[in-house]
Design a protein that fits this description.
Blueprint: H1 2-5, H2 13-21, H3 32-46, H4 50-73, E1 85-99, E2 102-112, E3 118-119, E4 122-127, E5 137-145, H5 158-164, E6 169-178, H6 187-201, H7 211-215, H8 224-233, H9 243-262, H10 272-290, H11 295-312, H12 319-333, H13 341-357, H14 366-387, H15 396-425, H16 429-449, H17 462-476, H18 480-490, E7 507-511, E8 520-523, E9 528-531, H19 543-554, E10 559-565, H20 570-573, H21 576-582, E11 584-590, E12 603-604, E13 610-613, E14 616-622, E15 636-641, E16 644-648, H22 654-660, E17 669-671, H23 683-689, E18 693-696, H24 709-717, E19 721-724, H25 725-728, E20 731-735, E21 741-746, H26 747-750
Parallel strand pairs: 4-6, 9-10, 10-11, 11-12, 16-17, 17-18, 18-19
Antiparallel strand pairs: 1-2, 1-5, 2-3, 2-4, 5-6, 7-8, 7-20, 8-9, 13-14, 14-15, 15-16, 20-21
Helix pairs in contact: 2-4, 2-12, 3-4, 8-16, 9-10, 9-11, 10-11, 11-12, 12-13, 13-14, 14-15, 14-17, 15-16, 17-18, 19-21
């Protein structure tokens, strides 16, 4: 209340929010005693002038966030349980997601059975497991591990996502037994019950599972093809419980109660507003709970509550007050929320609307306002999509003009009312209508998506990004008619990502972190070669799509002159199709031609073939002919820049190594054959290569025990420096034509933040 009576306090909200955000930039979290010191200093500064009060607000926010992050890090899996198999008991939380290989779900309130030690909130995968339900208690045999993900430029930060979800452990289930314990009540139980009733009511209708995304926020029901269509049309926001839907529901409840009072259906001895506002907030809260209180719904719920509260106490702050207060409260309750793309896209979309529609609503008609709103959101979100490495769609403004009202005014009201009728009276016909309306929309979206493929663009650098953001703000501001020319001049810099290239006669070699697999990028001044493309996992997760392609775009590679697939093993060639479908590939060379996808148009690997790019020589030196085993048929490539060479060996084993000894093998950098398996890296081969570095491309704590300790010891004995992608993430080596050679960076250290393992 005091905030509304003293609107000057809004001036200090940005400083407080900045303080809450500041720890997220830390490589290592500052000690907790700094938070205590800031708490003591802030009240003293508040007694002084305006600048001192801004500093006090900043310190107060930083102190709160710092203490929160220390507490969150303390909830991670203890080191003694990392990579250990334990028997544990816990409760199924959230909505379990079926996968191609089993079930993925979250476990809360877990403890280790033998010692009784409490275990953190965890995300688990049960390969080939039984169906589980929210709220059930289970006993599992599970292998636990601390949160960890791959580390590459331009790719999704899985560890940041886990941290923002407060997930302190990952687990693989080996077996389980349901415990005879009553289902736990609460939000998860409510969501699970609603989900099962809807599935039961609509079991015979094709495509009805999509409706679950709009009713209970279950995004797992959407197929990969569905997401591709939504990305291509810029409508992904419609298929979750979005802030718009929460706001519309609250407005509908508020309006119905107000209307009922006006026409005499409600006779109250107090103002109708006092009843309408709490019930509207309650309805919005229940709907947000169905979504699991995702960040966009938190934002919408808080803004709805603040607006209605202001009306109840007869205050009318401006829209920026509600926006800032909602932003402040979300980050105050969860200082890790800004690590999620949804946080920024949700708040920036609303901020763009407030900024771009200010002073215009009373001047034009409804269709002009609706069309401008789509234009403002489309243009306003482009810088933020680039910041998060997300694809943009040129169709979005046109498609959303129709899709948003179709979903928000037709599908969602019918779905919510139909759910209420099904739960109370077992009448499913309105749910059927909502499902068919949604399926009809998807048919139209699929047609629209066939006209446009969304493009991933590299981050343009902070200077260009800020200039582009200024241009976007100018173009959507009330002064756009005066500023349109300089604004348009600023926009192209968003597409002008810096494209550094090696000098003539030099090469850059980047070994990507693709877990238990391989992908290496070799760049010269004007050309790029990709050696292997990572795996496509049985779950459907494609590292070519999710890791290799975004990394290539970020590293300035718009097309590949050659993609060389050492052999057909999935961990080397599984991601090739995704890459070829997303960028131009001039030529594909394969070590096992008969096993490669015909669509790739692969050519056979031919030992002795040689070519030169910008003074850098590429030579294929080995590939065993059939019927040799798959690993021995690996296509081995040697790349030479001046006095330095790189030897890329695939999965070749000791047999192939001995057959290569008659060739020139000397290299400064060796890619360890077969990920460091004990069936490779013989003494004779290492001595023939005499590398300065050896790179082991293998997954962290993988089940194959790669690289084998004896192999690592062998390299160390021969004075070769080992580099591990599982520890360093992606690594780049720079080789110059005049003798210079160095390891330029390991991405895990370059991009490290305190939540990274």
């Amino acid at each position: 209340m005091d905030v509304l009576r003293r609107p000057r306090l809004i001036v200090f909200l940005p400083a407080f929010i900045l303080g809450l955000l500041s720890p997220l930039m830390c490589v290592a979290l500052p000690p907790l005693w700094l938070a205590a010191g800031a708490c003591l200093l802030a009240p003293l500064l508040w007694r002084r002038g305006f600048i001192a009060r801004l500093l006090a607000a900043l310190l107060a926010g930083a102190a709160w966030a710092l203490a929160w992050h220390h507490l969150a890090l303390g909830e991670r899996l203890p080191a003694e349980f990392d990579q250990q198999t334990v028997v544990m008991q816990g409760r199924i939380a959230g909505l379990p997601q079926p996968t191609a290989t089993g079930w993925r779900f979250q476990v809360a309130d877990a403890h280790e059975v033998r010692s009784g030690t409490a275990l953190p909130f965890m995300r688990v995968h049960w390969y080939g497991g039984e169906p589980v339900m929210q709220g059930e208690y289970w006993q599992f045999e599970a292998r636990l591990r601390r949160p960890r993900g791959m580390s590459n430029p331009g790719t999704f930060d899985y560890e940041a996502w886990l941290y923002a979800q407060r997930i302190g452990a990952l687990a693989s289930i080996r077996g389980g037994e349901r415990l005879d314990v009553p289902l736990a009540p609460g939000i998860d139980g409510m969501r699970g019950h609603v989900r099962e009733r809807i599935l039961l009511a609509l079991d015979s209708h094709a495509g009805t599972e999509r409706l679950l995304a709009l009713i209970v926020g279950d995004r797992s029901v959407l197929t990969r093809e569905d997401w591709l269509v939504l990305q291509a049309t810029g409508t992904s926001h419609l298929m979750v419980i979005s802030g718009l839907h929460v706001g519309l529901l609250a407005a509908a409840v508020f309006g119905l109660i107000t209307l009922a009072g006006r026409i005499g259906l409600l006779r109250l001895s107090f103002p109708r507003l006092w009843l309408a506002a709490p019930l509207a907030i309650l309805a919005a809260a229940i709907y947000a709970a169905l979504a699991g209180f995702a960040v966009p719904t938190q934002r919408a719920l808080l803004m709805v509550a603040l607006v209605l509260l202001a009306r109840v106490i007869y205050r009318q702050p401006g829209p920026w007050f509600f926006w800032l207060m909602a932003l402040c409260l979300v980050v105050l309750f969860d200082p890790a929320a800004p690590l999620l793309a949804g946080f920024w896209l949700s708040f920036m979309a609303v901020g763009a609307l407030i900024f771009g529609m200010a002073g215009r609503l009373s001047q034009q008609g409804m269709w002009w306002r609706w069309g401008r709103a789509q234009w403002v959101i489309f243009l306003g979100l482009w810088p933020w999509l680039l910041l998060w490495g997300m694809p943009g769609s040129l169709l979005a403004p046109l498609v959303n003009v129709v899709a948003i009202p179709w979903v928000s005014l037709l599908v969602v009201p019918a779905a919510l009312l139909g759910t209420l009728l099904e739960l109370t009276l077992e009448i499913p016909w309105l749910l059927w209508f909502a499902a068919e309306a949604l399926n009809g929309l998807f048919l139209a979206l699929q047609w629209a998506a066939s006209w446009h493929v969304p493009r991933y663009l590299a981050f343009p650098g902070w200077t260009n990004w800020v200039l582009g953001l200024i241009g976007v703000m100018a173009l959507t501001s009330p002064l756009a008619r005066l500023l349109w020319l300089p604004a348009l001049a600023c926009l192209p810099v968003l597409l002008a990502a810096p494209q550094p290239r090696p000098p003539e006669g030099h090469m850059w070699v980047t070994v990507l972190d693709v877990g238990q697999g391989l992908s290496v990028l070799v760049q010269t001044r004007e050309h790029a070669l990709l050696y292997d493309a990572g795996a496509r996992l049985s779950s459907g997760f494609d590292l070519g799509e999710a890791v290799v392609h975004p990394a290539l775009v970020t590293l300035g590679v718009g097309s590949l002159d050659v993609m060389l697939l050492s052999h057909a093993d999935n961990d080397h060639a599984g991601g090739a199709g995704a890459i070829a479908s997303r960028m131009h590939v001039g030529r594909v060379i394969a070590g096992q031609l008969e096993d490669q996808a015909p669509a790739l148009g692969a050519q056979a690997c031919r030992p002795g073939e040689q070519w030169e790019w910008n003074g850098v020589v590429f030579e294929i030196i080995y590939s065993a002919p059939p019927p040799a085993p798959a690993n021995e048929r690996s296509c081995v490539l040697r790349v030479t820049a001046g006095p330095h060479s790189v030897l890329l060996t695939g999965d070749v084993g000791i047999r192939g190594e001995y057959q290569m000894l008659s060739r020139e093998l000397g290299a400064s950098l060796l890619l360890a054959p077969h990920h460091g398996s004990r069936t490779s890296s013989s003494y004779a081969f290492i001595r023939a290569v005499q590398p300065q570095w050896v790179v082991f491309s293998a997954g962290h704590a993988n089940r194959f025990n790669h690289p084998h300790p004896n192999v690592v010891a062998r390299y160390r004995e021969l004075k070769v420096e080992p580099v591990y992608t599982s520890r360093a993430g992606a690594v780049r080596f720079v080789f110059g034509g005049r003798g210079s050679a160095h390891l330029e960076w390991g991405w895990r250290d370059s991009a490290r933040r305190f939540w990274h393992e």
